[in-house]
Amino acid sequence: MSDAPKADAAPADAPAKPKSKLPLIAGAAVLVLAGAGGGGYWWWSHRAPADPKAKAEEKVEPHTPEDAGVVGFEPFVANLADEGGTRFLRASLKLVVAGAETAKEVEENAVEHAILQSAILEILTVHTAEQLVKPEGKAALKKEILEKTGHVLHSAKVTDVLFTEFVVQF
């Protein structure tokens, strides 16, 4: 047998192979990045807004007077002004009126209530389905109803129009 060292055996006096530090460095980097991300999220979510008035304006809701009342109507079904006359609108709405007692009086006064109903129906029938399915069309309709009912109703001030149902048939 020969005294030559084997090819796959390491000599006894050779230094040991150093272990890789890559997993340790990668783990530390992940922990640092996770901590930085969590800290950044906490800081951004708890800091004060740059303009406090801007933040307050975001949360402003329509203001309704404390003593406001509501005048309701049966659902309106109206033919729309489209060609062919086959499209119609079914809408339920309520008028917000300044003064709860005034709203009750309008509800009980058959003539005033009928005049309001007629004025609203006249407005609904001059619009097309194409106009009313768009948000800006509904907003314009709401404004038009508010103005018209405000002129028609002399005993109360109409402050808002609320749609509770709005279906356009195509």
Explain what the structure shows.
The protein is built from 6 helices and 4 strands; from the N terminus they run H-H-E-E-E-H-H-H-H-E. Strands 1, 2, 3 and 4 form a 4-stranded antiparallel sheet that branches. The N and C termini lie far apart (101 Å). The chain is elongated and about 115 Å long. The protein is 46% helix and 18% strand. By secondary structure, the protein is an alpha+beta fold. It has helices at 22-46, 52-58, 100-108, 110-124, 129-132, 135-152, and strands at 69-72, 76-79, 88-97, 158-169.
Helix and strand topology:
Layout: H1 22-46, H2 52-58, E1 69-72, E2 76-79, E3 88-97, H3 100-108, H4 110-124, H5 129-132, H6 135-152, E4 158-169
Helix pairs in contact: 4-6
What are the salient characteristics of this protein?
6 helices; four-stranded antiparallel beta sheet; alpha+beta; 18% strand; 170 residues; elongated
